[in-house]
Structure formats: C-alpha cells, structure tokens
Specification:
heterodimer; A: alpha+beta; Mth169, Chain: A; three-stranded antiparallel sheet; B: nine-stranded mixed sheet; 5 helices; globular
C-alpha cells in the first residue's frame, strides 16, 4: 500500500518561495495569479495494513514541523 | 569544564566551535551523530553550524532524530547546558528544546556578512559578559534564519526575558528581529549568528570571545 502526505505551510505563515513563484509567473505574463503557496508531497511505500494513525504519527514526529506546517494524509 | 561538539554529515562549523571553546579554556570532545551517549562529565553540548544531512526535508530535521540528539535531549532535561549556532539552532528548534521554527529567509537570498546584534539580556551564562543593550558584531551565514513562532510563544519569550540577541538590521525577516533565544531555564541558547567566527583577530573581530569566556568561566564555577 501507499500513502501520500501533503505538507503545506500553515495559513498566515509567509511563504517566501510561493511569493517568488507568483512574481515569476507575473513576469511571464500570466495575469490574475493572486497567490501561490508551495508545499511538499511525500509518497510512502508501506507494508499492507499500516494504519492511518501510524502515518499520522510519522507526520507529527518527522515529516511536518507542526509549528509552521500543516499536513494531510491520503491512503492510496 | 568539558564540552562536547556534535558532528553530523554536513556539519562545517564543528571545528571552529571546538577552537573557540578550547581558546576559552574548555576541554573539548567531538562526538559523532551515531553515538548514542555523550562522553561522561560533559557540562555543555555545542551543536555547530553547517548543513546537516544536506538540509533534506527541513533544516535540522533529520539531525534532530539522530541517536546523539536523543542523548542531547536527555542531557538538557537533566539541567545540562547546550549551545546551538546556525544549523545548531535549527536542530534545537526541531528537537523541541527551543520553541518556534526557522524558515527560509524572507528575501530568499543566502545572507553571508558580519552584522550588528543587540544583546537583549545579560541574564544567562552565555551573555553575562555583555551588558544588555551592547551592540556586538558577529557573522551570519544562512538561508533559513527567519524565526517564526506563534503570538503566545513570542509573548512568553519577551515576558520571561528569553530573547538573547536581536538584529540591529533584520537580514532575514525574522519575527521581532530575533537572532537568538534562551530556554526557560536559561541553559540552552540557540542563535543564527556565529560567535565562534568572531574569536580571533584574524577573523576580523573578537566580539564572540566574551560569550565563550563567560560560558566556560560560569560552568567551571558551577
């Protein structure tokens, strides 16, 4: 089985990389890009039967820094 | 006074840290990240600057899970001292020994220069050699030094006099110009600027000497 973890900066935390990407899109002539937020996708190959709770624990302990980041877990 | 300097793959200020501590009179042992125990009788653990584990995942995140960092956390919980500089500060934040997080610099650039810092408190073994309000010059060299914490944490840091250093001119977008903070028991200091790179006239400045001398002196008498 696989799990996909999305890690994003929390709302309200300034994302300097997202801002730079937004600026670059504007430079390329794309209009109307009001905001860009950049995050991470982490794909895990897991032993069958691994629980979502275990993946959540991985997020809490390592994959996300919950001071600044939020995460979501998707089992696929 | 005995100090341990941790070494991770990608550390690059470990020897500078050892030189600064030795020059101040400490007995220094380098400790590899895979060791599960600190040498006996260590008074302070220094976590040096660099790019531990290539800054993969987040700066300091992988190092914070290493065997030696489990020993570091236990050392601090026993009331031991720790100093984290630059990547070392990021590691201390990732272990949870210090609150908050260090994010990408607001200007997105790697900042590498000497910079003015205000000593905010002299109430710690690290900063007792200065007067509050003194301005010292240390080098900074980092890409992720933008300190972020929630309002409650920032209030607590201010009310408990735990901001050790503030930037005179903010180089990275850090909240409230914070450059270095202390733990609640004032025995753990994390800071982005490099005092160990300002201890020899050949460095271009010696403002960091007072930090190491005071620290070694304080711990010898402890």
């Amino acid at each position: 089985m696989k799990a996909r973890v999305h890690v994003m900066l929390k709302n309200g935390v300034l994302d300097p990389q997202g801002e730079a990407v937004k600026h670059a899109l504007g430079t390329l002539g794309f209009e109307g890009v009001d905001g860009v937020r950049q995050g991470k996708v982490i794909e895990l190959d897991l032993a069958d039967g691994t629980s979502e709770a275990t993946v959540t624990e991985m997020c809490e302990k390592l994959l996300a820094n919950t001071v600044i980041e939020s995460y979501s877990v998707e089992l696929v | 006074m005995r100090a341990a300097v941790l070494v991770f793959p990608g550390s690059n200020c470990d020897r500078d840290m050892a030189v600064a501590l030795r020059a101040a009179g400490a007995e220094v042992e380098m400790v590899w990240h895979k060791d599960a125990d600190l040498p006996g009788g260590v008074d302070i653990v220094a976590v040096p600057g660099g790019f531990s584990f290539g800054d993969y995942l987040r700066c300091g995140a992988i190092a914070a899970q290493s065997p030696i960092c489990k020993a570091l956390v236990a050392h601090v919980k026993r009331g031991g001292y720790a100093l984290g500089v630059c990547n070392g500060f990021q590691v201390l934040a990732e272990t949870g020994l210090l609150p908050g997080a260090l994010m990408r610099n607001a200007g997105l650039k790697f900042v590498c220069k000497s910079i003015g810092l205000e000593v905010v408190t002299s109430n710690s073994a690290f900063t007792e050699g200065y007067n509050a309000g003194d301005v010292v010059t240390y080098p900074v060299a980092h890409h992720d030094g933008n300190y972020v914490a929630d309002e409650a944490t920032l209030d607590q840091l201010r009310d408990q006099d735990r901001v050790a250093f503030r930037y005179s001119q903010n180089p990275n977008g850090s909240t409230a110009n914070i450059a270095g903070i202390l733990s609640e028991n004032r025995r753990v200091l994390g800071m982005m600027p490099h005092p160990e790179r300002a201890v020899d006239a050949a460095h271009g400045g010696t403002d960091g000497q007072a930090l190491f001398r005071t620290l070694v002196g304080q711990l010898e008498n402890a």
